[in-house]
Amino acid sequence: MASEQKLWGGRFTGKTDPLMELYNASLPYDQKMWAVDLEGTRVYTSALKNINLINEKELSEIHRGLKVIGQEWETNSFVEKPGDEDIHTANERRLGEIIGKEIAGKVHTGRSRNDQVATDMRLYVREKIVKVLRPALIQLIQSLVMRARSEIDVLMPGYTHLQRAQPIRWSHWLSMHATFLANDLDRLNQLLVRVNQSPLGAGALAGHPYGIDREFIAENLEFDGVIGNSLAAVSDRDFVIEMMFWGSLISNHLAKFSEDLIIYSTAEFGFIKLADAYSTGSSLMPQKKNPDSLELLRGKSGRTLGQLVGFMVSSKATPSSYNKDLQEDKEPLFDNMTTIEHSLLIAAGVISTLEINAEKMKGALTMDMLATDLADYLVRKGVPFRETHHISGEAVAYAENNKLSGIDQIPLDAYKKIDSRFEEDVSKVFDFDASVERRTATGGTAKSAVLKQLDNIEAKLNF
């Protein structure tokens, strides 16, 4: 029969259009789930043995065959054959070749590819979170924190609207990005809880006809629990959407991080210099050193967002239970996770190897950035801030109108004409180090406040 080798071939007698074969197949990209597919089958068949649907000898043979298949995948010696639609079909077909079809034909008893693929994907995503994404994210956060601690005395301008605003510490800027990423770590851990639920044993959609112990399966696959509704178990791809949303959000954070560093690396700023390992040159202009690593980090945010939106559109109106539309989850998800993995590693490399120019950073500070400190000076003398704001503005205007280099150059008698409450100690305002140290409240720029921020961020890395 033309469709005999297919898992679903019994009802079909006609040949499948060759283009349909290609259109339907997912093995080229879902084969990366080979290990979790084999592990799911190993545990599932143990559960079948517990309800006497296979015996001990059959179970031993099945597990032996699964081990052989795993070794073939590991050594790149697994041979794909026509009819291997997906990783599940390929592994089961090969199992039959190794131990015989009579025994291999029992492994799918009560199981559907619907609950099988949902299980494989959850296992695969869980493994990527625990072994790849979370460690890479922690490494990046640690790189930011270590740098912040070692360069805590370096001052630079803080910006709003890309205009110089107030003096801050370089470490405060590093802490900001570490804070965003620490929140991403929290979200990833929360997502892991929802990922780590078992669909296996839900069948095609209506549950298991032989009373299999789904809790046994979940426990042995190290899931936290089972999905309690069989329809939801086979059709739920919220975890895929959440995973790609997380990837899109952290991509946005990395894009912001990259945009700042791209600006800071320009000759006009000169705050930082990227390592050669994360830069490229121009094919025409020999002098160029381009921040391609950062530009790619910034550009990947569009890629990850597109993957999220694309799959949400594919899944938004599918009918209940499993539909083949859901096969569109794998390619964007796999690429999304790989993109984020690489982006985290590149970002960690960039931040740990770049050079800073502390003199340039501090040299970019200008006295007008202390206008708020000037207002605060009068606040401490009991003047309402809304009044001091206008008074400080008058001082800025005076310096500009009289072509002075800064508000620190205004003579004391001129200050007294602006407001009689200015006294000789106003000169203490015009100190950038003192300015950042005044902001001692939680989240501020004082050294103690920044160190506390870094301590809190590091505490989130211990779970």
From TrEMBL:
PROSITE patterns: FUMARATE_LYASES. It comes from the Eukaryota. Pathway: Amino-acid biosynthesis; L-arginine biosynthesis; L-arginine from L-ornithine and carbamoyl phosphate: step 3/3. Its EC number is 4.3.2.1. SUPFAM superfamilies: L-aspartase-like. Gene3D superfamilies: Fumarase/aspartase (C-terminal domain), Fumarase/aspartase (Central domain), Fumarase/aspartase (N-terminal domain). Keywords: Lyase. Residues 369-437 form the Argininosuccinate lyase C-terminal domain. One of its GO terms (molecular function) is argininosuccinate lyase activity. InterPro entries: Arg_succ_lyase_C (IPR029419), Argininosuccinate_lyase (IPR009049), Fumarase/histidase_N (IPR024083), Fumarate_lyase_CS (IPR020557), Fumarate_lyase_fam (IPR000362), Fumarate_lyase_N (IPR022761), L-Aspartase-like (IPR008948). Residues 10-306 form the Fumarate lyase N-terminal domain. It catalyses: 2-(N(omega)-L-arginino)succinate = fumarate + L-arginine. One of its GO terms (biological process) is L-arginine biosynthetic process via ornithine. It holds the Pfam family Lyase_1. GO terms for cellular component: cytosol. Belongs to the lyase 1 family. Argininosuccinate lyase subfamily. This is argininosuccinate lyase. It comes from Starmerella bacillaris (Yeast).
